From TrEMBL:
Keywords: FAD, Flavoprotein, Membrane, Monooxygenase, NADP, Oxidoreductase, Transmembrane, Transmembrane helix. The keyword Oxidoreductase applies. Coiled coil: none annotated. Belongs to the FAD-binding monooxygenase family. The keyword Transmembrane applies. The lineage of its organism: Bacteria, Bacillati, Actinomycetota, Actinomycetes, Geodermatophilales. It comes from the Bacteria. It comes from Modestobacter roseus. This is Cation diffusion facilitator CzcD-associated flavoprotein CzcO.
Length: 497
């Protein structure tokens, strides 16, 4: 006879041990210390994005006083910081609160099946490297892995790329042994990754060219927040932190609102700033004048204007053109010009993947994400006891994560107080008009928009990108809502009978 294997049960499974997962664990520990939980991390280290990306110069383009946690002050003098400092901050926070001890590495969630009868998820976990699979059950599944694939970046088809005799690299998979010193480098792209890479590579490369099909909005920002540093010296870290955070949130909100309400004035202002940073007579309108409005895509911030400085000093060049074909020695453009290159970096974006590609089922029925509608930016219609964390695209990601996690723990408290075992969102009007969940013009979003959930045309089905509105919705308002249906233990069995 064989003894049946006992399946471990946890109250909450958090998928991902990056900035969102660590934050979710902190709020869960604070508000529900009696609950059992674990963080499942597919990779072998905490930190998520900040451990994954290893390309030169990798940094945040949001200030760390708002990108960092509300409960853990950022103590560094530079508010726009590199990945190494961000990673140290995240891991230090996790260690300080014992969250690192709850992480299970090399654990990739493959499937999750909800049973209404048992009011729990059965989760199949694959362990990369060994190929072994194990099973866990949980009361709640919280996906904190962001929205892009960690195993591959996006590289479009380039004619003739197989002929290229140099090295072709995607920033998401930067080789540890790649040395670009004295080499000719072409960086394809114009987004945040490209404008980070170019000045970093220009420090030692023979030449660096940023090749873009379409310009992006680029703005210089101070790497150090002088006001924040002054407040920290006068008031101390703990007292200064909330004041700095509120100030920077307000500044970011004002900039975004100005760009949305007065796009032409914002465009002219950004162009004026760019022109002042560039050499006299530089073709600003060719290389730094996008065809779309400010903040239709994310605005690229460059600390202390390092990209512009590299251009002024002749260490970097921007070329706006289309690629005709790769050649043996570089890239030939539609204009006929050829850019010689030893290394070509394809900073061409991400591949989106909702919830880490987990195959969800509810009572045996597959969940098709494109058929679901997002509730309060954190749950899916028709899917019980499932929450996720996706932050802002127009300001610091973590600002929204904190609010979502607070709302999540309040929701758990409501279930406890009233004896509920589960809850699921359901639109009162099944014919409610919908649009894409991420209402954002970035190419990586548009490529995958039909594979993602939808948002509705009214609250609580709208995906808010407004911190002030979300503070009301997620922090102040009740978790009780007529379109959130609660179920007590045993209700499913009684209904079936």
């Amino acid at each position: 006879m064989t003894t049946p294997t006992t399946v471990e049960h946890l109250d909450v499974l958090i998928v991902g041990a990056g900035i969102s997962g660590i934050g979710a664990a902190w709020y869960l520990q604070r508000d529900h210390p009696q609950r059992t939980f674990a963080l499942l991390e597919a990779r072998g280290a905490t930190g998520g994005t900040w451990d994954l990306f290893r390309y030169p110069g990798v940094r945040s383009d949001s200030d760390l006083h708002t990108f960092g946690y509300e409960f853990a002050p950022w103590r560094e003098p530079r508010s726009i910081a590199g990945a190494d400092r961000i990673l140290a901050y995240l891991r230090g926070t996790a260690a300080e609160h014992g969250i690192d001890r709850q992480v299970r590495f090399h654990s990739r969630v493959v499937t999750a099946a909800w049973s209404s009868e048992q009011a729990r998820w059965t989760v199949e976990v694959e362990h990369p490297g060994t190929g072994e699979r194990t099973t866990l059950t949980c009361g709640w599944l919280f996906c904190a892995g962001g929205y892009y694939r960690y195993d591959e970046g996006f590289t479009p088809h380039f004619e003739g790329r197989e002929r290229f005799g140099g090295q072709l690299v995607h920033p998401q998979h930067w080789p540890e042994d790649l040395d670009t010193t004295g080499k000719r480098v072409v960086v394809i792209g114009s987004g945040a990754t490209a404008v980070t890479l170019v000045p970093a590579l220009a420090e030692t490369a023979a030449s660096v060219t940023m090749l873009q099909r379409t310009p992006s909005y680029v703005m210089p920002v101070p790497a150090e927040d002088k006001l924040a540093n002054r407040l920290r010296r006068v008031l101390g870290e703990e007292r200064a932190h909330p004041l700095i955070r509120r100030t920077n949130i307000a500044k970011g909100r004002l900039v975004w609102q100005f760009c949305q309400r007065h796009p032409e004035r914002a465009r002219k202002l950004i162009r004026w700033v760019n022109a002042r940073q560039l050499p006299e007579g530089y073709p600003v309108d060719e290389h730094f004048n996008p065809p779309y409005g400010p903040w239709d895509q994310r605005l690229c911030a460059v600390p202390d204007g390092d990209l512009f400085r590299a251009i002024r000093e002749g260490r970097a060049e921007v070329v706006t053109d289309r690629i005709d074909t790769f050649t043996e020695t570089g890239v030939r453009l539609a204009s006929g010009r050829e850019l010689p290159a030893d290394v070509v970096v394809t900073a061409t974006g991400l591949n989106l993947q909702a919830f880490g590609g987990i195959a969800l089922t509810v009572d045996g029925h597959p969940v098709h994400l494109a058929d679901t509608v997002v509730y309060k930016g954190m749950m899916l219609s028709g899917v019980p006891n499932f929450a996720f964390a996706v932050g802002y695209t127009n300001s610091s990601w973590t600002l929204k994560i904190g609010l979502l996690c607070e709302h999540f723990t309040r929701l758990l408290a409501h279930l406890d107080a009233h004896g509920y075992a589960s809850c699921r969102p359901e639109p009162a009007d099944p014919e409610m008009p919908t649009r894409p969940f991420l209402d954002f013009a970035a190419g990586y979003v548009q490529r995958s928009v039909d594979q993602l959930p939808r948002q509705g045309d009214r609250m609580p089905w709208l995906t808010s990108m407004d911190y002030r509105a979300d503070r009301t919705l997620l922090r102040a308002d009740s978790v009780v809502d007529p379109e959130l249906l609660f179920t007590r233990a045993g209700d499913a069995e009684r209904a079936a009978a």
